[in-house]
């Protein structure tokens, strides 16, 4: 019975991993399609599409899947008229949350997300109700092995970046929103394609959570992230490393 239980646990975890991978691919495909539709369907001439295609490659998406997503932009099917909508609100404990979506039904997305926030003890807000607590900036990422910290810093400064943070996990180059793709292109001449290059929301200050509160917030963030229309979720909380280790155990 122990062996059988272990097998079922392994299959359950594999199923969960496959589901997460499928959701991640669906979000990448939607971003590729929208990027191609809002500009030229050529990554070389469309900076946003180029970033989306690179993200897909990092996620090991096949070239055929990427090409199909680009072609879908030229002839979208029913229910594929996606628009970008940003929702803002609060989770429990006063945690500010920004939810970026690509949706073909604003009313459905708003109703679903409002319900999820409410059930978790939070509330949906108006546009810009929490954005002032964040900075909107460009972020380019490279693996640690792409360059030494000094080489990355020198190249980033020359490219016009605002800041660089290099750790054993990799290099993170921060830029003004309008400089993102110019900095990315300049760095690629030195270090090759970046792991990612995108606009992000960074909190100006964070709320530190204990274990119980962190469990509640992480459950909400996971639920929001699993929604089909949601592309990215940002929040202004911080969880101490020791707490995260206990929650991950």
The average pLDDT value, as a whole number, equals 90
Q: Which residues sit in consecutive blocks of at least 5 with pLDDT less than 50?
A: 1-14
CATH superfamily of the largest domain: YebC, transcriptional regulation domain
Computed Rg: 20 Å
Q: Total strand count, please?
A: 10
Total domain modules: 3
Strand order of the largest sheet: 3-1-2-9
Q: Which class do the helix and strand fractions yield?
A: alpha+beta
N-to-C span: 24 Å
Helices and strands, in N-to-C order?
Answer: HHHEEHEEHEEHEEHEEH
The total of helices stands at: 8
CATH topology annotation of the largest domain: Alpha-Beta Plaits
CATH architecture designation of the largest domain: 2-Layer Sandwich
Silhouette: globular
CATH domain class of the largest domain: Alpha Beta
Measured as a percent range, the helix fraction is 40-55%
Largest sheet: number of strands, sense, barrel closure: 4 strands, antiparallel
Strand content: 15-25%
């Amino acid at each position: 019975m122990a062996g059988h239980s272990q097998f079922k646990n392994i299959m359950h975890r594999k199923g969960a991993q496959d589901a997460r991978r499928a959701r991640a691919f669906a979000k990448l495909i939607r971003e590729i399609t929208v990027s191609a539709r809002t500009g030229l369907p050529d990554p070389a001439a469309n900076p946003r599409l180029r970033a989306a295609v690179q993200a897909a490659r990092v996620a090991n998406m096949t070239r055929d899947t990427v090409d199909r997503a680009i072609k879908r932009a030229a002839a979208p099917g029913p229910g594929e008229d996606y628009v970008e909508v940003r929702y803002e609100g609060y989770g429990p404990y006063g945690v500010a949350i920004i939810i970026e979506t690509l949706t073909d039904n604003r009313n459905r997305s708003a109703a679903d997300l409002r319900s999820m926030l409410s059930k978790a003890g939070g509330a949906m807000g108006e546009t810009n109700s929490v954005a002032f607590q964040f900075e909107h900036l460009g972020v380019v990422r490279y693996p640690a092995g792409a360059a030494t910290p000094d080489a990355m810093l020198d190249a980033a400064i020359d490219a016009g970046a605002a800041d660089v943070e290099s750790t054993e996990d990799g290099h993170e180059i921060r830029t003004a929103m309008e400089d993102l793709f110019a900095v990315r292109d300049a760095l690629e001449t030195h270090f090759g394609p970046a792991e990612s290059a995108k606009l992000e929301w960074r909190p100006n200050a964070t709320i530190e959570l204990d274990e119980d509160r962190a469990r509640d917030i992480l459950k909400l963030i996971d639920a929001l992230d699993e929604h089909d229309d949601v592309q990215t979720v940002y929040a202004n909380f911080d969880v101490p490393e020791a707490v995260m280790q206990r929650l991950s155990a």
